[in-house]
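Standup notes
- DV: blocked on the single-chain target, sequence here:
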Amino acid sequence: MTLLSGSIFFVLINLITYFVINKFFLLPFSIIIIDFLITCMVMVTFRMVVKIAFLELQRPERTHANIIIYGAGEAGITAKRVLDRDVSTKYKLIAFLDDDPGKIGKKLEGIDIVGPDKLNDLLNLHSVGQLIIAVQQFNTQRKQELVDLCLEHEVKVLTVPPMLEWINGELSFNQIKKIRIEDLLEREEIKLDDRQIRSELSGKTILITGAAGSIGSELARQIVKFFPHRLILVDQAETEMHQLGLEFTENYRDFHPQFILADIRNGSRMENIIREAKPDIIYHAAAYKHVPVMEDNPLEAILTNVNGTRILADLAVKYKARKFIMISTDKAVNPTSIMGASKRIAEIYTQSLNVHGEPKFITTRFGNVLGSNGSVIPLFRSQIEKGGPVTVTHPEITRYFMTIPEACALVLEAGTMGQGGEIFIFDMGKSVRIVDLAKRMISLSGLILGKDIQMRFSGLRPGEKLYEELLNSKENTIPTHHPRILIAKVRTYDAAEVSHQINELIELAGSGSEQEVVQKMKEIVPEFKSQNSIYEELDKN
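- DV (later): unblocked, structure below
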């Protein structure tokens, strides 16, 4: 501003001397212009030099963290350039890793490209601070091996998000995030028969209960893509339904589901909904699912998981739905908890109704889903953020895990292939030791177990198993055309006898006698043996 003001001053002096005094220029205009430009250039250059020198002094070379980028493709190049642009980062890129033999041994923007087999040597030779995974399609097993090797060397692992998530098609430094435990537990993408599912769902009226929950909401997201005629979403959770409504308004502007607040235990309310909607397909995901809570509240487990299912199933028969798909759980297999037993009784009831021919009653059964409400992973993450301790119930406890989209995709596939009466179980892969899961999450957070954070064993909770079961051995399952879906071999039940038994159970639940209710549950499901529970005494009797 000062320079510009000075140049304007000399211009005014020139005008005064020419027009007022004696028609001459005190300074030639060319001199004024040249002076302005040269001075501007010198000032800008000087300021840039000072700023660069200051930044370099603030982050001397000895404080730079060595970085390796896995992936010498477009995402890898973009990640490098993002780091180059962000002058606040303290790093030095020492190598690209890539699986492509055609790239190994070459240089990319002056950086060597080496094979993944050289990673261990790089980690031993250099003090590497971070490894950035910049591969859009990466084999999950390879990713796990890579992360485990990095964690052994106390190297933080970051990941570049898919290109579709880049802001306006450009990657920013803040989008390069720490890898999450969910990224390591997911498996290869499921191949679905989209044509068959589209034929099943397109143009149909579909009702989902528990629609605001983890499974129900993801089912809704996936079903919308198959263009149903009408989608009715039912749940009693007001806040979650409101949030789901906002999501659909933003992401699916051309489709408007019907959001209904209702309790599946309210028979007259549910009848009004189903009579008006006349759904072709019902996905029943509403249920109480927390094992310790249901162990303390067995009456509520019966009224919701059993009677709520009975109300819906009877209405499906009355109003001639084509299919009724029930979402069950691996905890229904040889149950040890009130929750698991209540879901098994609901399975038995819906199976017994299959004698009507229509609707076709289909059950899908799977284990824990990553990121669902009450999942162990959000709990561990919260405990780690608070500084611990991380609480694990037992050092030997194991669980099966599946991502929510993966589980819902298999539900749609099983619902399509089901002919009625089947219990479909999903290949959940290998069970995971929860203590190993907790240790890996601690390491991924950059903390050291026993030094930065502690782990504590709290003991098995009421009704909790050490090992979950899925009945997925060859002796008790039948394969289907889909390698990830099996059919459980289970005994059939007489519809009249089942109805009589469940009527008695619901009457007992209404009377408020918890001991009598649990005793009746054990009568209906003889394999129900309580563990870590006050109801173990009933098994002795």
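- Follow-up: The radius of gyration is 32 Å.
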